[in-house]
Structures are given as C-alpha cells and as structure tokens.
Amino acid sequence: MALEIIPKITDPRGEGWPQPARKEIKIIGGMAFMSPTTMLKLTEYSHCSPTGTYEGKMWCGVVRGNRFLYWFDVSPEYKNQCRIYYRRIIKGNRKWIISKD
User: Fold this and answer.
1) What is the C-alpha to C-alpha distance for residues 9 and 15, in angstroms, rounded to an integer?
2) What pLDDT, on a 0 to 100 scale, did the predictor assign at position 97?
3) Contact criterion met (CB below 8 Å) for 6 and 38
4) Per-residue H/E/C for the chain
5) Does residue 44 surpass a pLDDT of 70?
6) How many C-beta atoms surround the C-beta of residue 73 within 10 A?
7) Predicted pLDDT of residue 100
8) What pLDDT, on the 0 to 100 scale, is given for residue 81?
9) What residues pair up with 59 in beta bridges, in sequence order?
10) Stretch 4-29: mean pLDDT, rounded?
C-alpha cells in the first residue's frame, strides 16, 4: 500500500499542502491505483519541483506527454536530505494506474 512507500507528512510546513490522503492510493507490486478524483487532488508541477522539501509531499507532472506521480522521502545515501521518488501514471478506465519504470 502507499502507506508503506509514501511517507506521512510530519513537517509542520505540510499542513497547508493540498494532496490526497495516502490511503487513497493503493500500491500493489510495482503499480499503484487511484481514482481520477484522487488524481485531481495532486498539484501539478510539470516544469519544476515545488518549494518546501519534506518527507511525504506529493505532486504530479507531465514529461514528454507522460504523467508522473512524485513524492519526497529521505535519501538512502544522505539521511539528512530528501530525494524525489516517482511512478509513471497510466490512465485506466476507472482508475489511474501508476507503474514503476
């Protein structure tokens, strides 16, 4: 589930950041599923990354016609820094399917 991959926002700066609840995103194997309504809760940043770097912050973006889900988590190499993680989003009939590339 997304609860195990996308960390919870614990930084106070995240209180005002608009994003879906982690429980609205289901991750099975290398893919995740969300409804179109959940997808619309993600802020889009297609040409840059959002300011305010903290664990659990999610957003989406479009790169070369492909939509991606992004989030910040602690870097495995540098414990005091965040790293951007992502999954490619593929639109399904009733759900958005996010696959790990």
Assistant:
1) 8
2) 57
3) no
4) CHHHHCCCCCCHHHHHCCCCCHHHCEEECCEEEECHHHHCCCCECCCCCCCCCCCCCEEEEEECCEEEEEEEEECCCCCCCEEEEEEEEEECCCCEEEECC
5) yes
6) 16
7) 58
8) 92
9) 70
10) 87
The candidate with the shortest Cα–Cα distance to 6, out of 26, 14, 18, is 26
Report domain extents, the chain.
Answer: 2-99
Residue at token pair 């409804």 = 35
53-71 tens-digit pLDDT: 999 999 999 988 888 889 9
Cβ–Cβ < 8 Å for 30, 99? yes
Return the bridge partners of 95, or none.
Answer: none
Residue 24, amino acid: E
Average pLDDT of the chain? 83
Check: CB of residue 58 under 8 Å from CB of residue 65. no
Amino acid type, 95: K
Position 21, amino acid: A
